[in-house]
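A.,

Following up on our hallway conversation. C-alpha cells first:
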C-alpha cells in the first residue's frame, strides 16, 4: 500500500476510537471506575510508546540536541494551549459530569490539541519505518477511548444532541487523519535532525497532555488502582515493543 495512504489510515484508526468511546457513552452508562481504568491503562501505554518508540529512536537517528529541544518545546506548546482552552471553558473536557455550560467548542478544540500531536506522530512513524507502527497505533487508540467516553458523557449531561456530539467527534477524527497525512507529507524526506525535532515536539506535547489531563482525571475517579493499571499499560506497550523489535 502507498505510504501516504498508510499514514492516513494510521491516523484514522487512532482517531476512530474517539467515536467508539462516544458511542458507548451515548448508549450506555459506564461506571466511572471503568473509565478511570481505561484512562490509566492508556496513559501507561502512551508513556511507554513515547519512551521506546519515539524519544529513544529520535535520539538515535537525529541526536540529543534536537531530541531534547523538541521535547521541551512540545511540552511548552501544549501547556500554553491547554491553559488557553481551559480559560475558554474546556478545563473539564475529559470529565463525564458536564462542562458547566458553553464548553462544547472548547471541548472540541481541546480534543484537537490532544489529538493532533498524536496523529502527526503516526504519520511520522510511517515515514520513518515505511509501515504501520502497531505499538504507537495501539497506544493512541486505547488512550482515545476514555476521552470519547468522558467528553461525550459531559456533552450529553449538558443537553447536546446526537447530531452535535457525533458531528464533533467525526470532525476531530477527520482532522486527526489529515494531521497524520500532513506529518507524513511534510517530513517524509526531511533530514534526521528535523524529523527528531518534530517527532519529539509531538511526544513532549503528548506527555504534557497525559500529565495535565489523563492521569489526574483517572486518579480522581479511582485513587486505589490507577498507578497499578498505568503500570500494566506501560508493561504491555514495552512487551509489544520488544516483540516487534
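Then the amino acids I'd put at each of the 245 positions:
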Amino acid at each position: 500500500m502507498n505510504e501516504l495512504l498508510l499514514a492516513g489510515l494510521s491516523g484514522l484508526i487512532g482517531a476512530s476510537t474517539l467515536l467508539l468511546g462516544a458511542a458507548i457513552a451515548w448508549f450506555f452508562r459506564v461506571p466511572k471506575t471503568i473509565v478511570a481504568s481505561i484512562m490509566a491503562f492508556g496513559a501507561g501505554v502512551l508513556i511507554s510508546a513515547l519512551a521506546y518508540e519515539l524519544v529513544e529512536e529520535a535520539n538515535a537517528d537525529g541526536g540529543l540536541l534536537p531530541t531534547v529541544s523538541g521535547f521541551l518545546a512540545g511540552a511548552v506548546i501544549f501547556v500554553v494551549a491547554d491553559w488557553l482552552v481551559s480559560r475558554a471553558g474546556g478545563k473539564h473536557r475529559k470529565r463525564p459530569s458536564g462542562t458547566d455550560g458553553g464548553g462544547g467548542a472548547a471541548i472540541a478544540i481541546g480534543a484537537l490539541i490532544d489529538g493532533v500531536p498524536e496523529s502527526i506522530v503516526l504519520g511520522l512513524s510511517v515515514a520513518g519505518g515505511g509501515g504501520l507502527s502497531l505499538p504507537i497505533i495501539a497506544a493512541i487508540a486505547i488512550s482515545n477511548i476514555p476521552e470519547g467516553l468522558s467528553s461525550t458523557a459531559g456533552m450529553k449531561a449538558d443537553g447536546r444532541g446526537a447530531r452535535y456530539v457525533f458531528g464533533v467527534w467525526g470532525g476531530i477524527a477527520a482532522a486527526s487523519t489529515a494531521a497524520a497525512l500532513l506529518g507524513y507529507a511534510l517530513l517524509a524526506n526531511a533530514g534526521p535532525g528535523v524529523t527528531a525535532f518534530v517527532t519529539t515536539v509531538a511526544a513532549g506535547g503528548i506527555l504534557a497532555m497525559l500529565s495535565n489531563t489523563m492521569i489526574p482525571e483517572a486518579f480522581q475517579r479511582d485513587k486505589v488502582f490507577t498507578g497499578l493499571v498505568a503500570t500494566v499499560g506501560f508493561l504491555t506497550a514495552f512487551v509489544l515493543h520488544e516483540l516487534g523489535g
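The first helix runs from residue 3 to 27. Curious whether your intuition agrees with the design.

B.
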